[in-house]
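quick one, 391 residues, struct below
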Amino acid sequence: MEKPIKIKAESLIVNSIGQRPILMFIIALIIFSGCAPKNEIDKCYEYLKNNGQSPKEYVISKFKDYDYVFLGEYHRQKQDVDFVISLIPDLYNNGIRNIAYEFYQYENQSIVDSLLTAKEWDEKTLYHNISKGMGIAWGYLEYLNLFKKIWEFNQTLNEDQPKFRVVLLGYEYHPCKSGLERFGGYDPDAFHADVFEKEIISKNEKSLIYCGRHHAFTKYKQPVYDFEKDTLYELNNERFGNIIHGKFPKKTFNIFLHSPWVPNKGWDEQWVKPVNGVIDSIMDLMGNIPIGFDAKNTVMGKLKANDTYYAFGYEDFKLEDFCDGYIFLLPYKKVEFVSVVPNFYDEYNLSKLKDFWKCIGFTEDEHTITIEEVVETFNYKPEDDFGDLMK
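---
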């Protein structure tokens, strides 16, 4: 039975804000700013108070009814990766022994399988093999730390117990080539789906799928939109999650990790808060506690948005159109980004990175970049992405 988070106004909101009248004043500000009518705010608040769960409990609970739970992220948010790592013991203890992982190439699967069950941790072998293709640009501590944490967990198991796995979903990437040859001759999402079917579904296993939000779409069809021409070409139903959901509709569930949405003015514009900022406002009222909740067939799912690219092609776009479930971990002002592992870029990997950058158009000067410059280049700052949302 799911364990709801019981949130009382007297114990949570009054204590965190101070007085009840202040709470009502804040609600009034939300109403009069046009974010949402008061009855909608009230219904959402009551729903979360009675049905919200801790993020960890929420994810685990979904495996009672579904075999393949997609967790879609923004990318590079530290708290998202740390959260996934924290799930490892609970996943295993509930019969889920796999995390399908977008970020590194599948051709390294046998190497990773061996490393995660070895008696000694071999960081150098991991770093030198995981760096193929796009992996050379993903030398982040937190994403790489997932492998070590799973190795550590496997060390606690008896020899006869099945081990926890990371299934690598990444395609070959050849930056010097063009078209589908750049991706080893495959559509990236179709490749993800083929690997997942081979490594998880064919073995009758369950899995958490941790990937970018767009790969994670299941029922939602992503707009193919040209902002310069203001033209919607189609609604794409061939993302990774779409493919798996199309074949196994009763076994898939999609959870969105709280992060900004693409605005309706273009990808390079200031990104916007989901569903016109209503979720962020409610989270403020609740003291910004981490929480997981259902979107489909709930009052939360009925929240609408009209300021985002994701609404293109939908007459009445709502949160439940976009995702089945939602997890809020912390507000934007507290977001941290992942950090580069300096020793990932040793002489061997630095040489591979320089070749990679040369193919994607970096100048010769940039091709001679140092390790220190690599770390500085890849250590993005959240304020550069989120801008005013962090105020």
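The first strand starts at residue 68 and ends at 73.
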